[in-house]
Amino acid sequence: MENNSKKASSLRWGILRRALISSPSSTTDSADDPSETSGVSRRANLGFGLIPFQLVDNDQLKSEELKHSSFSKGREACVCYTVPNQSATKLFLYQRVDSCANLDDFRICNTYDIDNTGLVCSWPSEEVLAYYCLSQLDLFRSKKVIELGSGYGLAGLLIAAVTEASEVVISDGNPQVVDYIQRNINANSSVFGSTNVKSMMLHWNHEELSDFSNSFDIIVASDCTFFKEFHKGLVQTIKCLLKKEGPSEAVFLGPKRGNSLDDFLKEVKGNRLRFTVDEMYDPEIWRRHESFIKKNATWPNYDKDHCYPLLVRITL
Q1: Residue range 158-174, pLDDT digits in tens
Q2: What is the pLDDT of residue 22?
Q3: What is the DSSP annotation of 220-251?
Q4: Rounded distance, CA 43 to CA 25, Å?
Q5: Residue 79 CB: number of other CB atoms within 10 A?
Q6: pLDDT for the residue numbered 14
Q7: pTM score, two decimals?
Q8: Which positions ≥6 away from 235 have C-beta within 8 Å?
């Protein structure tokens, strides 16, 4: 476990060093080079392309919430996602631009014993999770839901906007990310209806969870099993948060990433939790995966092991 932590920390600092000494173009190139970051992540500029999005100009922001959520040009952006449902619901997310890593980010990572992946971008697995949730409306209706390790919170915001959940908590262990989550909740409050939506700072290895034990019907998360040093804390968090009475479950989507997912599932089994793993869980997601496998130009370094999210459902 200690070696895994040191390796992840070393990789993070290596990426930061390249970001600080490289030009924007060379930083982007190295970030997409599997030889440089295969131990950390692989992502595409457009991901699976399941939820259309576009950058929004500050001048285009219309609602009062958005008008008062001004962003720093060059450092962050406002992205409008159009949910592929009948009403074409719009979700506005504030997020960092790709080249913004700085020393403060990594100081916070070391202080809180967390990673900064939630600040880098909205990851492909998060988009896939959001899209999958759109096809599972009955799973969330009138339920209490929490998203773990949410990053900018696309899936949690979508659940809050379209599923008629009673409560949605969007959580992350990075305080900078939680600030973005709260901004994004504020920016989209008009589409939540009667759903109670809030942000939460939640670190799987550190936080005292007794106040939230036995609280949630559904847990969702995406791409949260890569760092093995967090497996034990993540499983304990799932076990603590899920309601003991009535049906409850955790819905995870994430790639295998070598043996990371398998090791996480061993921890799940060791805690006497039940789980299922599905590879083909949505026909459209699978169709796009097959297209990328055939070397679709929109994702030239696509690799199933690192990029295709498997569906894991965990119950007590």
Answers
A1: 999 999 999 999 999 88
A2: 43
A3: EEES--SSGGGHHHHHHHHHHHB-SSS--EEE
A4: 16
A5: 18
A6: 52
A7: 0.83
A8: 264, 267, 268, 271, 273
